[in-house]
UniProtKB/TrEMBL annotation:
Its EC number is 2.7.13.3. It catalyses: ATP + protein L-histidine = ADP + protein N-phospho-L-histidine. The chain crosses the membrane at residues 54-74, 80-100, 112-142, 158-176. Residues 324-535 form the Histidine kinase domain. It comes from the Bacteria. Keywords: Kinase, Membrane, Phosphoprotein, Transferase, Transmembrane, Transmembrane helix. It comes from Cellvibrio polysaccharolyticus. This is histidine kinase.
């Protein structure tokens, strides 16, 4: 599915081993062809015209040796040593010169086969060794002509042809050496670029997998070519075992794709995903290339997070305003509370009015608590998330929480797996859980007469993110109230401030976590906190 971006690039380059194997095929075929032509007398005036026996036996030995070297190279896995390569080329040089001598010397044209051998030496051998082989080839050709000149025909034409061939041999050797050096340099540069490209691909893969924005790419057949983990989580999509997925596996997205294809400039749609990481996701489309055949890139974002960011900007300015108002309220509130205390000390106060003073005192304390919560919101410190070993941390939290209360509490802790690790600011996590435990124990006590809650920690098998559930035995929350549960100042109690759950939600979001209310199968209330993955949080 991720083959668009993550396939390894081939490393192009100079491969002398493949060239050597190709050369072994060539000279084996050459020897076989010379034997075939000689036996069928195809060119009787050229091949073996002066010494047929020498030509035939040399060609046979040459072919057998070439076949043996071809089999060796075919079975070998690594490049042989320069000495082995030099030996193969030397056998070619000797055999070609013997067959050339048996066929009438350099003037019959067989000597020009030496140029191919020298060119192979220029490619397969390095530096001085290649030039040394070219010198041997030149000496061999000229020596055969000198032998023929002094002991046979005294023909000057063969000397001129040999000298010309010798010059060609050196030119070929130098040219192919230069081309080989350029080829090797180009291969090294291409290899370096391939390594750099592979490194960039590795970085792209890491960024793609760790980024919180979902990325999905599909082709013109609606086959999903690429889908990162965030997109899978947000769209509640899983890669099929067969390999590529299809937009049909995400019906809500497929419908929006059709609408976008009809009107590409339409407003970015919002999808309702019932079982994904977020209830709503916002998607944006972009064609990778112009035309109907191009792949399409889809950006998937948590719409809840976008909405929350906008709300946080509004609440930030509202918080500063509220904090200044809270300071102004405190002065008259303090005066009211002080006057109430003085009035309570009066001996002339009727007994019936004492109850009214108690109401004034209680409401002053409630307003003061609201002011404290508002100021706490405005002064909230930046979250510093770090890895938290939830198994041991929750055990310590429960023990500390019990010690902080001067009453017997029934708190049950279940860890569904060993070594559960999450990402959260420990101080802020303690603040969130303390608030949830306070609420849960209070509602359980009012409903059943027993202060009972259950903490459950585990790892979501689908999203692979750690979670904490706080379950109580309270009367539950109505569907109407559930919509406003995390809004500031919303409360169902006369004595509540309505900021506890709102503050818990804000702290969770600051740590890349989220909190939601759920109902258990038996009807109990459950607050579900999903923490950021310890190794994937950005």
């Amino acid at each position: 599915m991720d083959n668009l971006l993550l396939n390894p690039l081939p490393a192009p380059g100079h491969n002398p081993y493949q060239l050597l194997r190709a050369y072994s095929y060539y000279h084996t075929l050459l020897g076989s062809l010379l034997i075939l032509l000689f036996q069928n007398k195809v060119a009787p005036n050229v091949l073996g015209v002066e010494d047929p026996a020498l030509f035939f036996y040399t060609a046979c030995a040459y072919t057998v040796l070439n076949f043996a070297s071809m089999v060796y190279l075919w079975r070998a896995r690594d490049m042989p040593s320069p000495a082995f390569i030099f030996g193969i080329l030397l056998i070619d040089l000797i055999a070609i010169n013997l067959m050339m001598h048996a066929s009438g010397g350099v003037t019959n044209g067989l000597g020009y086969l030496t140029l191919i051998t020298v060119a192979a030496g220029g490619i397969l051998l390095t530096g001085e060794l290649a030039l040394s082989f070219a010198a041997l080839a030149c000496i061999a050709v000229i020596s055969e002509s000198l032998y023929r000149f002094f002991y046979d025909t005294l023909n000057h034409d063969s000397l001129f042809s040999a000298a010309s061939l010798g010059v060609l041999i050196f030119i070929i050797a130098i040219v192919f050496q230069h081309l080989t050096r350029k080829l090797v340099a180009s291969a090294e540069e291409a290899k370096s670029q391939a390594i750099q490209a592979a490194h960039i691909q590795k970085l792209a893969r890491l960024i793609l997998e760790r980024m919180r924005t979902g990325i999905l790419v599909f082709n013109r057949h609606n086959e999903i070519e690429l889908c990162n983990q965030s997109a899978m989580n947000l769209l509640s999509f899983r890669q099929p075992a067969s390999g590529k997925g299809d937009l049909k596996d995400i019906p809500a997205l497929e419908e929006k794709v059709k609408l976008w294809q009809q009107s590409p400039k339409a407003h970015s749609p919002v999808l309702k995903i019932n079982s994904g990481l977020s209830d709503e996701v916002k998607i944006n489309f972009a064609a990778l290339e112009p035309g109907d055949e191009a792949e399409t890139l889809v950006f998937v974002e948590d719409n809840r997070s976008i909405t929350q960011q906008a709300q946080q900007l509004k609440l930030a300015s509202l918080g500063r305003l509220t904090a200044s108002i809270a300071h102004e309220i405190r002065n008259p509130l303090g005066a009211i509370s002080h006057a109430s205390q003085l009035l309570g000390e009066s001996e002339a106060l009727p007994a019936g009015d004492q109850r009214l003073l108690e109401i004034i005192d209680a409401q002053c304390k409630r307003v003061n608590q609201i002011i404290e919560n508002v100021l706490q919101l405005s002064r909230r410190r930046t979250a510093q998330p770090r890895q938290v070993m939830l198994n041991s941390w929750l055990k310590d939290f429960v023990a500390d929480y019990r010690r902080s209360k001067n009453e017997p509490l029934d708190i049950v802790l279940h860890c569904l797996a060993p070594g559960i690790t999450g990402q959260f600011d420990p101080g802020q996590l303690q603040q969130v859980l303390t608030n949830l435990c306070d609420n849960g124990l209070r509602y359980s006590l009012s409903a059943t007469g027993k202060p009972h809650i259950m903490l459950v920690a585990g790892v979501d098998s689908k999203l692979q993110r750690p979670f904490i559930n706080v379950v109580d035995d309270g009367p539950g929350i109505s569907e109407e109230n559930e919509k406003h549960l995390f809004e500031p100042f919303f409360t169902t109690e006369n004595a509540g401030s309505g900021l506890g759950l709102y503050l818990s939600k804000e702290l969770c979001e600051a740590n890349q976590a989220f909190i939601q209310f759920r109902r258990t199968p038996d009807g109990s209330s459950c607050f579900h906190i999903q923490l950021a993955h310890a190794e994937r949080a950005l």
